[in-house]
Amino acid sequence: MSPHSPPGSTRQVLLDSAKRLLWKHGYEAMSPRRILAESGAGQGSLYHHFPGKAALAAAALEEVAAEMTEAMDALFEGVPEPLAAVHRFLDIPFDPLKGCRLGRLANEAAVADPETADPALRAPLDRFFAAARTRIADALDRAAAEGRLHPGQDREMLATTMLAAVQGGFVLSRIHQDPASMRQAVAGAHLLLDSVTREPGP
Amino acid sequence: MSPHSPPGSTRQVLLDSAKRLLWKHGYEAMSPRRILAESGAGQGSLYHHFPGKAALAAAALEEVAAEMTEAMDALFEGVPEPLAAVHRFLDIPFDPLKGCRLGRLANEAAVADPETADPALRAPLDRFFAAARTRIADALDRAAAEGRLHPGQDREMLATTMLAAVQGGFVLSRIHQDPASMRQAVAGAHLLLDSVTREPGP
DNA sequence: GTCTATATATTGATAGAC
DNA sequence: GTCTATCAATATATAGAC
């Protein structure tokens, strides 16, 4: 929406602080006061550059979604073999205890409660996960075209399951305060992928 | 901890309201004011029966965890064939848009932020998901003992993946405001389970 | 045990000087 | 564009009568 601000500008400093706080504390717990303390900006600056907390958060989430989409694109363009790219996606070294930068907001009222949500907050999440599923499903389609997938597999379903395994891994790791849950969930996703894969023909 | 209160008692009415609000809005968004409005109790009652909001929430979550553990036990005891029980678990008719009563709290600071969390809030979640994983892993062990599982499968890993698929399904369905994500994630979990299953011997 | 005030801190946002 | 007040509303909790 709004063009990128110059790095180091007050507007960008506010956005960077919001991005950190949204990751660490989520939306509701990200008070304007904390943003100002984090960023060093004065009280008036926030409301000069943004209509309010929600608009700042929405802009911050747009940036996060753009960064993550870019990372997905780089991964899928950088790994020529499509199945290898999906496995690589599962092996991204997330820190499971920190939660997913976008997925962790799925249960905040302002983001995803149909009655009280601000659509501008959910939109970047919606778009990123749709894009991620498309990247994965497209890779699986290419694998199928190369004869590397057993026929008759629902590639969109498989792509959703890959994403769900990672998101569920975050949830379980946070609850147990233990990265092992993420490792196991991802291992299951690898196994599922292997189970629909067939060796390259001669 | 505390013994169950008589149904209809003010204490239990407060607990029931807290359980509803925790599911619908989460912990931080569950203000004492809302609890009192929901329950019809007077202001003083909450602080007479509980030291504060955190203690009420912890007691409410203990009840939720107990209910869900009981439901898991009923399912796994009621379905004699262990693999069928795991498939049945995946087919529990969750409402994906409502989120998981316990899993939805995984990203609240008071529940799972190592710096600020109240251990009493995370404990019931930790215990329920550990118990759930054990139920599933035990069923897979029984299936293996009956020769229904391909050998060499990590049953704990598989159990974690089943739970993660459901939790990830909740996250994705909330983000897209669409139950389809949960259906697809669960379908992937069924497929994984099938891929490690072998037909009963003669 | 329950009720009606009330207290204090924090929230998200504004006012207005510079 | 940035700053220092300041605001009204809400959050969690307490006081004290009944």
Automatic annotation (TrEMBL), chains A, B:
InterPro entries: Homeodomain-like_sf, HTH_TetR, Tet_transcr_reg_TetR-rel_C_sf, TetR_C. The lineage of its organism: Bacteria, Pseudomonadati, Pseudomonadota, Alphaproteobacteria, Rhodospirillales. Transmembrane segments: none annotated. Signal peptide: none annotated. Residues 8-68 form the HTH tetR-type domain. It comes from Marinibaculum pumilum. Residues 31-50 bind DNA. This is TetR/AcrR family transcriptional regulator. Gene3D superfamilies: Tetracycline Repressor, domain 2.
